[in-house]
Q: What sequence folds into this?
């Protein structure tokens, strides 16, 4: 088994420094673009909100109000149940 030998000559001849620099440049550029996107997103959403307003969906039916008759009937039923319970 041949021992491993380290030499900068292998890196230079294989364009290792250029490749490493290109990779770091690509990663740095991508991180800068992500940062700019996140920083500008609130301002962009304000503009989009003006163009496309938020939709308000009304899926539930409106609440029904009890009429005076319903309240009177409920009171009468409650009174009848109370009176029956007290007579026992």
A:
């Amino acid at each position: 088994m041949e021992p491993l030998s380290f030499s900068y000559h292998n890196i230079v001849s294989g364009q290792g420094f250029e490749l490493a620099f290109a990779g770091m440049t690509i990663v740095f550029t991508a991180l800068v673009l992500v940062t700019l996107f996140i920083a500008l997103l609130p301002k962009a959403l304000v503009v989009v909100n003006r163009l496309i307003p938020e939709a308000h969906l009304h899926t539930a039916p409106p609440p029904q109000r009890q009429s005076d008759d319903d309240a009177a009937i409920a009171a009468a039923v409650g009174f009848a149940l109370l009176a029956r319970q007290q007579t026992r």
Notes: The mean pLDDT is 85. The radius of gyration is 38 Å.
